[in-house]
Amino acid sequence: MGGLRLSAGWQSPAAMPRRWLAGIFAASAIFAVLVAVFSSDSVHRLWGTIAACGYGLALLTVAGWNKRGCDAALVLSFGGALAVPLAWMAAHALQQPEVAVVAQSASTLIHQGTPYPGAAALAATKNPNAYNPYLPVMALFGLPRAVFGSGLLTDPRVWFGAVFLVVFWYALRFGGARDPGRWMILIAASPFIAFELAVGGTDVPMVAFLCLGFALLWKPRPVPAGLALGVAAAIKATAWPAVLVAIALLAVRDGKRAVGAFTATAVAVVAAFVGPFAIGHPKAILVNTIKFPLGLAHVTSQASSPLPGHVLAQTGPVGHAIVVALLALAGLTVAVSLVIRPPRTVPRAVLLLAGAMTLMFVLAPSTRFGYLIYPATLALWLLAVAAGRALRDEGVRQGPGAPPASSRTRRRTSPVTRQAALCSARSGRSTRAAGAGSASAASARCSPGRRA
Asked: Using CB atoms within 10 A of its CB, is residue 346 exposed (0-12), middle (13-18) or buried (19+)?
């Protein structure tokens, strides 16, 4: 597992110690309360108010209801932190600006054949929301609203969420997580996903495709992994580092043939979705997806945070140039590390990607805390998958048909009981290997009073 070691008792949220689930819901409730009290955004405050109630009810349920309390708490957290606030905000058109940007890009795609406003039109505007910093696949999430008008079921966030739930479930399942349904509910209800999705959500489907891509690399399956990461790379340029990390992993672990299959697939997907617009409207895609996110357009992004990159960029042209240089240097450092010391396992590749993304967001000139959804979700997915694989590996070590036991159970088992189990396993192997006579001899060797 690339250095990850987890107890088999973590294979499912329902199997977690109740105190851990209670701690998760308590921390989530505190976060929601802080958002409700201190946020300056009314949409954020609304989410915080509703989510705090959901997390609070989940906490009370898991603490006070022994039978099926964990499952009920998962449902309450999912409903209170995600389903209810998302449905309410979608029905009443309460949203962050990026939701409208996605819907407008779909409308522009229908009427003008491109999701990007032209460079001439952008030159005359001072509205940062007139830009579309996303790649073409993102516009597909806005098509229901562009075609059928505003409403609960046409809100892009509903489709962000639907795609996330399906793709992330497959990422958990292909990765090897036990009980992927409960893990999906727990992670989707966490503030990392629920907060982001309820108010905006543009990053949510992409991170699910990242997880799916690396889940498919475990076998490996280079072509399906290329499809998943290619789709992610055609949603937002933020996914491009993941493609490079995957190539480095395949190169050192599986060889040139796997690298070629993966790279060809991922590049073909990106070319199919991005190529027509890059060829037909090169200046528009340059201004919208490269210059604007880097703060090089005449209008700057509204994304802000107290992170170092944004703070330094706000000091003036010199500070902004320094930030861009630092960002380029960080990217070069990560690229060099992929060549000098490439990751040899999926967990190491995912942890490297999470660290690189964290560094990238900290140094970006236009950034916000919401971007940390990428490293956080990658880490949570890896935790769930590592727990399931640890349980499977423990079962393999114990032999076919042996029920997995936690470390606490093994400590409570007496030496006599452990010896009896060992002798039983030996007797079974002897029977299969040489018949009843060998089985009798094995039984005699393991009889009471005789040391094995």
From this structure: buried
The answer to whether the CB of 9 falls within 8 A of the CB of 15 is: yes
- Give, for 424, the enclosing helix (H) or strand (E): helix 415-434
Nearest in space to 6 (alpha carbons), one of 398, 406, 388, 387: 387
Residue 207: which of 241, 249, 244, 247 has the closest Cα? Answer: 241
Contact between 200 and 164 (Cβ < 8 Å): no
286 lies in which domain range?
95-397
SS3 150: coil
Q: Which of residues 397, 426, 447 is at a domain's end?
A: 397
Q: In the structure encoding, which two tokens stand for residue 56, read together?
A: 């609070």
Q: How far apart are CA 180 and CA 178, in angstroms?
A: 6
Judge if the upstream peptide bond of residue 220 is cis by omega within 30 degrees of 0.
Answer: yes
In a 13 Å sphere around the CA of 160, the CA atoms on its Cβ side amount to 34
End-to-end CA distance of the chain: 33
For residues 139 and 9, what is the distance between their CA atoms, to the nearest angstrom?
42
Integer Cα distance of 391 and 11 in angstroms: 7
In this prediction, residue 441 has a pLDDT band, given cuts at 50, 70 and 90, of: very low
Please state the domain count of the chain.
2
pLDDT digits (tens, 9 = 90+) for 195-233: 999 999 999 999 999 999 999 999 889 999 999 999 999
Q: What is the pTM of this model?
A: 0.82
Whole-Å CA distances, 26 to 20, 53, 58, 123, 372: 10, 11, 9, 48, 21
Close Cβ partners of 5 (under 8 Å, ≥ 6 residues apart):
390
In this structure, is residue 213 part of a structural domain? yes
| 433 φ, ψ (degrees, to nearest 5) | -80, -40
* 229/114 same-domain check: yes
